[in-house]
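[Primary structure, fold]
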Amino acid sequence: MDAYDTGSGARSGPADEPRAPEGGAGQRAALPAADPADVASPPSPYDLPPPLGTGPRIGVAALSLRYQIGAALALALVAVTVCVHLGMTFLHVAPSNAVTKQHGKAIDDWIYPEFEQNWKLFAPNPLQQNIAVQVRAQVLAADGTVRTTGWYDLSAEDGRAIDGNLLPSHTQQNELRRAWDFFTATHGTDNRPVGLRGALSETYLRRIVVMRLDRDDAAGSDGSVERVQVRSRTTSVRPPKWSQEQVSEKPLYRELPWWSVTPADLPGGEQ
């Protein structure tokens, strides 16, 4: 066939030119099929984050409404108590003013004896003495005989409980020491009360030593503590070796009179 033949079988262009699809000159060539592995599948409902506000509740929010109200009231009560305590402590250590003059008794009733403030650490001459509080008791046995116990060194007991303890309790560190300081601050050298808080300090100290004697089982299984006597043993702290200061190493004792034990002084006794 002649290359210039214009018959129906002749080509209209160069031999290497691609032919248009038979569907018409305006149609595009079909795209290759996509690989199924390359098509991202729609996310599963389990992979979607939960809507806001539908997650599990934690803390106070997980409680029922009744317990939420109880927790809120408890927190409010604690907050009010803390605020009252801080206010009372501030008024106690503040200089005399119109509020302390008018409400001084209420402030003292709140502070004494458990929350009394002691600023001896900042005194010009800090304490250089070791004061040990000791007690002995007269015990009435079941057969009617009365015996007197030896001296119990309560301060030494507290010291042994604190030694090696990383978290000693406030009671072990301060209860007995502050009770004795409270007593000496409200009594003269003749052991008679001075001021209105003398009777309170005496009762406070007596109940502490009775409780400690009961803990040490001083009365035994068939006896009862009838009277107690408290004394202090004061020794000077030795000065450092490089100091020229001379102090006496002889202990000084201060013995209080015998106190009768009342039912209110016993652990769990009548108030």
Notes: Confidence is low (pLDDT under 50) at residues 3-10. The beta strands are 129-140, 146-148, 152-153, 224-236, 252-255, 259-260. The helical segments are 65-93, 98-111, 154-162, 170-185, 198-215.
